[in-house]
Amino acid sequence: MSESLLIRDLPQHERPRERLVLRGADALRDAELIAILLRTGTKGSSAVSIAEQLLKTFETLDNLARANLEDLCKIRGIGRDKAIALQSAFTLARRMAEQLRGEAPLLDTPARIADLLREQNRVYQVENFQVVLLNTRRRLIRWEQISQGTLDTLLVHPREVFKSAIAGGAAAIVLAHNHPSGDPTPSESDIKVTRDLIRAGQLLKIEVLDHIILGRCSPERKNDYVSLRELGFFYS
């Protein structure tokens, strides 16, 4: 057997490509779909077994999608090329989800804002602050990333937030950022920044409608986000 173990060298029942052709992609397990992306295994390990190890290590597809190249390459059998292929596939899936939402969606609830930003934010390893620009009918103009911080700190200046809003002709904005820890509970800094930006918006006649913090669901949390307006941190 050669140094590289090809999928076609595997027993029939372990050949994901053939199974996909015969039964369709929906019939394949996650590990088999990942194995198709990996293409080949290594000496003593098939692509399927490497894919199964990936899923075992990262536990969920969400965690796997969030993994950076360095983390992926720590898995035996995953080199730089395979790690790049995996990141490319997850990025395409995220972009497809964005396209399916269509143009100028109505963003009049926290859930709809979370749906807009979820796929992008779930892959971030540090906090990223974004502003969603809306027209008078609460439809999306665009959203922009304003700043990036460490796991614990994020610097946000009103000048940068409202520069984007003014340039985009926004009538209102929604603030948003992620918590890489997965817990979307707002910190004291989150609350202070929100109130500072509300006051700045009042001076500029651009309403700050909400601040959405994105995290992840858990047995204790039904939603993977919180709305600071719903939590009562906005002025009446």
Helix proportion range: 40-55%
> Order of SSEs, N→C?
HHHHHHHEEHEHEE
Number of strands: 5
Using the alpha-carbon principal axes, give the shape: elongated
Describe the protein in words.
With 236 residues, the protein is an alpha+beta fold. The protein has 2 domains: 7-98, 5' to 3' exonuclease, C-terminal subdomain (DNA polymerase, domain 1, Orthogonal Bundle); 104-227, 3-Layer(aba) Sandwich (Cytidine Deaminase, domain 2). The chain contains 9 helices and 5 strands. The chain has a 5-stranded mixed β-sheet, sandwiched between helices. 33% of the residues are buried.
Summarize the structure.
The chain is of the alpha+beta class and 236 residues long. The chain is 42% helix and 14% strand.
Secondary structure layout plus pairing:
Layout: H1 16-23, H2 30-38, H3 47-58, H4 61-66, H5 69-73, H6 80-100, H7 110-121, E1 128-134, E2 140-148, H8 158-167, E3 172-178, H9 188-204, E4 207-214, E5 225-227
Parallel strand pairs: 3-4
Antiparallel strand pairs: 1-2, 1-3, 4-5
Keywords:
2 domains; DNA polymerase, domain 1; alpha+beta; Cytidine Deaminase, domain 2; 236 residues
